[in-house]
Design a protein that fits this description.
alpha+beta, 7 helices, about 250 residues
Length: about 250
């Protein structure tokens, strides 16, 4: 069935050979003048343009203004809430209703808005191993688990007693005040968190009491360290836009 097509191909090849033999004379006698290159359009003039906000910038602005309506537009319809080992989000309610309960956004204090602002400022994220296409922030630290287990046994502590700094060189101060003398700096290692029952810090909760690897006791801003296996806000790509997919952590009784 393919032979006729092969014969046709041979005929076309023969014509091309003949045309090639006549080509030198044809080019001299009938060649049209060379075409001029099309004029290129001038580049667009530089000037103002409409800024496109990133998702984190948008989330930070929403948290700052406590804009529930704007927040509702970026919460996924199938929002999940997993405080421990199962999803307890009420699927009969909207995503924003479940997020509000998980983060404690409602009420007179509405302290969850501050937590939302902190998540917006978080620069790390990790893929959720249980949910395809979902990313959660902050990312868990990477460390030597065997060494951490030995450290916990030696110090008779558990994971709840340890945290990790968000960056290298965080200053440890002698008291829970911004202007207190610096007694040490944190490196990129696990840091021991100590209980703090001082009246001032118990109310304000702006500093965490820590024990450095060098044995110094001091204070760091509470937002500069993160707990191991702590709470995470999760995101997913919905079409061309990012949305809040769920929350890992929180208190079910809220």
């Amino acid at each position: 069935m393919r032979h006729p097509r092969l014969s046709c191909t041979h005929a076309v090849a023969a014509v091309l050979v003949i045309a090639g033999a006549l080509a030198p004379m044809a080019v001299t006698a009938q060649s049209p003048p060379p075409a001029q290159a099309p004029a290129q359009s001038p580049p667009p003039a530089l000037g103002p343009y409409k800024p496109v906000a990133t998702f984190r910038t948008q989330l930070a602005e929403i948290a700052k203004n406590k804009d529930r309506a704007a927040l509702a537009r970026i919460v996924a319809a199938n929002f999940f809430w997993v405080p421990e080992d199962k999803d307890i989000a009420d699927k009969q309610k909207s995503g924003i209703d479940n997020l509000s309960k998980a983060l404690s956004l409602d009420g007179a204090d509405g302290f969850g808005w501050e937590a939302l602002a902190a998540y917006a400022a978080e620069t790390t994220a990790m893929a959720d191993p249980q949910r395809k296409g979902v990313f959660c922030a902050p990312a868990d630290p990477t460390f030597d688990e065997k060494a951490a287990e030995q450290l916990a046994n030696t110090t008779q502590t558990d994971a709840a007693d340890w945290a990790f700094p968000i960056r290298d060189g965080i200053e440890v101060r002698a008291a829970a005040k911004q202007d207190a003398p610096v007694v040490d700096k944190l490196g990129l290692y696990l840091v021991r968190v100590l209980p703090d029952d001082s009246p001032a810090n118990a109310v304000l909760a702006t500093f965490a009491k820590v024990l450095t690897a060098g044995g110094k006791v001091g204070y760091v801003p509470i937002e500069t360290i993160l707990p191991i296996g702590g709470e995470q806000l999760c995101y997913l790509k919905d079409g061309d836009a990012w949305k809040i997919a769920g929350f890992l952590g929180g208190e079910p009784s809220h």
